[in-house]
Amino acid sequence: MDFVPHPAFLETAAEDPALEIVRIAADQPEAAILAALAECDGYYVMASRDELAKPFHVTDALLAQLPRLLIAASYGAGYDTIDPEAGTRAGVLIVNQAGGNAEAVAEHAVGMMLGLLKRFPECHAAMRAGGAANRNAFMGRDILGKTVGLFGLGNVGTRVAEILRVAFRCRVLACDPYLDAATVTARGAEKMEKAEMLATSDVISVNCPLTSETRAMMDAEAFATMKPGAIFVTTARGSIHDEAALEAALASGHIAGAGLDVWEQEPPPADHPLLHHPRVIATQHTAGVTHESRKLITSIAAQAFSDVAAGRMPPRIINPAVIPAFAERYRAARGRAIG
């Protein structure tokens, strides 16, 4: 809604004559936006919660006003702006583009690890202030052979594990309650529970979605459990880590540095203390924002809409419990079954 997707979305959609793309400008009354959206069978939803006005997040309240809607697709792998359970209650299929930006996010995470171990932000700040004459004051560490713990071993986590294992011979640990030990091993890591992984790892990287289980998972106790001098990196979602607790862990010196691509509020306020901390690398939710990943995820999204238009069940369904109700609504709306 009033955002410009990568040209690949429009190019892919244009190949399907069954699709009509409707741009809905945000600079008009809410009622007008809702009226336009109510005429649509699909909704391509901005994924960042602070970029989309709250009335247009996919909730029970919104879906009650969109009786025609069949499918909502998140603009990326995350779906902070969508309540999948609300979709299930309304019979609306929810999909994302999981895996489409995995390479970009994994590279970003590993890049932050390298930058923090080599103390880039501290050295940069000192040079700008004219206080970097003593090079030994910024002595860093190699990532080669380090132990790295990953929260989440999905598309991104698996690629992070591969880069670290193959390029840097790291020992990779993973905490993922949804995967058994054999699957974790097959994806290049060792399965480990949260506390032990925190205490063992030289680097902790968060690569899991924001859910009721992961919200505030990295709190003061978690940071205290981390190995002294370890670094913390997150390219997942804000609210998984407690920003005040992280600031305190950095201030005490227990945590050596942090790489933050995601924030409680995006963008964070300019006076946010973590933005000004000399041992923090800060980016604005840009880990997955590359030309290559945007081309891929928007093509995947357009294909999902094409699948539904053609009577095919798309992949990457977030709320599979909806399928029976969705199939009934689809038959009633389109006069044929979806397979």
Automatic annotation (TrEMBL):
<dbReference type="GO" id="GO:0051287">
    <property type="term" value="F:NAD binding"/>
</dbReference>
<feature type="domain" description="D-isomer specific 2-hydroxyacid dehydrogenase NAD-binding">
    <location>
        <begin position="110"/>
        <end position="287"/>
    </location>
</feature>
<dbReference type="Pfam" id="PF00389">
    <property type="entry name" value="2-Hacid_dh"/>
</dbReference>
<dbReference type="Pfam" id="PF02826">
    <property type="entry name" value="2-Hacid_dh_C"/>
</dbReference>
<keyword id="KW-0560">Oxidoreductase</keyword>
<comment type="similarity">
    <text>Belongs to the D-isomer specific 2-hydroxyacid dehydrogenase family.</text>
</comment>
<dbReference type="InterPro" id="IPR036291">
    <property type="entry name" value="NAD(P)-bd_dom_sf"/>
</dbReference>
<dbReference type="InterPro" id="IPR050857">
    <property type="entry name" value="D-2-hydroxyacid_DH"/>
</dbReference>
<feature type="domain" description="D-isomer specific 2-hydroxyacid dehydrogenase catalytic">
    <location>
        <begin position="19"/>
        <end position="319"/>
    </location>
</feature>
<dbReference type="InterPro" id="IPR029753">
    <property type="entry name" value="D-isomer_DH_CS"/>
</dbReference>
<dbReference type="InterPro" id="IPR006139">
    <property type="entry name" value="D-isomer_2_OHA_DH_cat_dom"/>
</dbReference>
<keyword id="KW-0520">NAD</keyword>
<protein>
    <submittedName>
        <fullName>3-phosphoglycerate dehydrogenase</fullName>
    </submittedName>
</protein>
<dbReference type="InterPro" id="IPR006140">
    <property type="entry name" value="D-isomer_DH_NAD-bd"/>
</dbReference>
<dbReference type="GO" id="GO:0016616">
    <property type="term" value="F:oxidoreductase activity, acting on the CH-OH group of donors, NAD or NADP as acceptor"/>
</dbReference>
